[in-house]
Design a protein that fits this description.
84 residues, mainly alpha
Length: 84
């Protein structure tokens, strides 16, 4: 019985998604989601052109990303001008 329980735990641990797993940019619905997954600002492949703006399908500007990293922006729906 105990051995069976250990097997179940092992299977669950091996199949569970790790925290902060690598999503593709298409999976994000807002810039806030991207920044939440990479709070240190190291976006790696998410910032393909190295301009500091990850997942440009949802993040519109470096200013928006910086605002979110600083904790000042709650919504990922603002554009480059800061307007909705």
């Amino acid at each position: 019985m105990r051995q069976q329980g250990l097997w179940i735990i092992a299977v669950l641990l091996l199949t569970a998604s790790p925290v902060g797993y690598a999503k593709s940019c298409k999976a994000y619905r807002s810039c806030a989601e991207v920044v939440a997954d990479y709070p240190d600002g190291r976006f790696g492949r998410r910032d393909g052109d190295g301009d500091g703006v990850p997942c440009e399908n949802v993040c519109r500007s470096r200013e928006q990303v910086e605002r979110l990293l600083d904790g000042g922006g709650k919504s990922g729906k603002r554009g480059a001008t800061g307007k909705r």
